[in-house]
Write the structure tokens for this entry.
Amino acid sequence: MIIAIIGGFISIVFNNDGDIEFDTSQVPSNEIVLVAKAQIGNKGGDKFWKWYGYEEHVEWCACFVSWCANECGYIDAGIIPKFANCENEGVYWFKTRGLWQDKGYLPKNGDIIFFDWADSNDEKADHVGIVEKVENGKVYTIEGNSKGDICKQKEYDINSSVILGYGTPMY
């Protein structure tokens, strides 16, 4: 019994990397965050866009989010769509199901964050990532196809002008 209690405590406090910062407050939505976190440092995104079905390199941010969702079983469960186009597939899917929140919403870990880069400023999604956490007025993300063609963690002010909105999956 004591071994089970100690084991449970260790699994709550430590994540797969042994980090003490593991957030267990929303375990169901945290699964996609853990899958995404394991991909940090992936350069080129070959495994994501090839999994999606492309034969050559494409902008792969949405393929990355979809791949992570698939690894969790969320695509088959209808929780997150399989999408390669941020605006016409990703944003559209969340909006038509009433699972969209505009900028100003306080996101949760596991939410899907969509961006409209300032250079286009056309109110259409240009990029997508996964919300890792929100702390002290910042939203922390894990994004594929980030600057340098790599998967990395990033942070933004919660009211950043480049945040378009959020898909809020029903985990």
